[in-house]
Amino acid sequence: MDNCTFDDLYLDLLDKAYSGVEQYNQRTDTTVHAFFGAAFKWQLDHIPLSDLRPMYTKTAAAEVAWKLSGRKSIKWLQKYTSIWDEFAVDGQVERAYGYRWRHAFGIDQVNNIINKLTNDPSSRQQLLLSWDPREDNVTPALNIPCPWASQYLILDNRLEMVLHVRSNDLLYGFPYDLMMYTLLGQAFANSLDVDLGHMMYTIAHGHIYDNQIPAVEALLDSDTKDSKEYVFRHTFTVHDIIEDPDDFVDHIVELTKGLNYDPKNVTKGLLPKVVV
């Protein structure tokens, strides 16, 4: 969404869910407030940071680096964030996104996309799949991919991408999904030596949980007139991130410091435990 702050977008989606349909979710034994279908364009040089509650680029950067490593183990990731701890068994995420990107289907999807677009910038076939129909929706697991596929193409020397999200926890998951894939898109653009375009972000089932209502109401009652747009482009290629993930995280932290990001905290004391 051009000329739109992240907070404008964030509150619009939260409001759609807040005023949406109540639905009992059997898997989590919880009630959600949900809507079907949303899509928007996001500029890839814009960093989704809320001025209403703190968000952490370090967390998103570490998640990008961990996924590009292709590892199931979260040992390295735990230096920076604990967000995947609840999805791990004995320190491993069995259905890890990065493992599927790099290993699970007998091909390194990430390197293949870069090679194919380098050799044919007009290609429209470059999809990065996280969903495995042999396992997902067949046997239960702590983590089934929510962003299940992304597509990358070059048009007018700009990287354009599409992210498909089958199910989005809008309070917690959405901001970091958007931030993580923004940083990933920049890495693809750097690898391909092209300009930044947009991400088309699509949501099938957008929702908030019953226990998130107080935090959502605090956000919806907030004024976004002072919310800002935050812009940077990092300089790391995909290969650079894989070679030195800690340096990448440090780079993103330094870029964020340059934004003078100083958010309010209207959800302080209201954020509940994540529903797994």
CATH fold category name: Thymidylate Synthase, Chain A
Arrangement of strands in the largest sheet: 1-2-6-5-4-3
Element-level helix/strand string: HEEHHHEEEHEHHH
Helix percentage range: 25-40%
Roughly what fraction of the amino acids lie in strands? Answer: 15-25%
User: What spatial form do the alpha-carbon principal axes imply?
Assistant: globular
- Mean of pLDDT: 96
What does this structure look like?
This protein is an alpha+beta fold. It has a single domain, classed as Thymidylate synthase/dCMP hydroxymethylase domain (Thymidylate Synthase, Chain A, 2-Layer Sandwich), CATH 3.30.572. The protein contains eight helices and six strands, in the order H-E-E-H-H-H-E-E-E-H-E-H-H-H. The chain has helices at residues 6-18, 57-69, 97-104, 109-119, 173-192, 213-220, 238-243, 245-257, and strands at 21-25, 30-43, 127-129, 147-155, 158-169, 195-209. Strands 1-2-6-5-4-3 form a six-stranded mixed beta sheet. Helix 2 runs parallel beside helix 3 (97-104) and helix 2 (57-69) runs antiparallel to helix 8 (245-257). The chain is globular, with a radius of gyration of 18 Å. The model has no long low-confidence stretch (mean pLDDT 96).
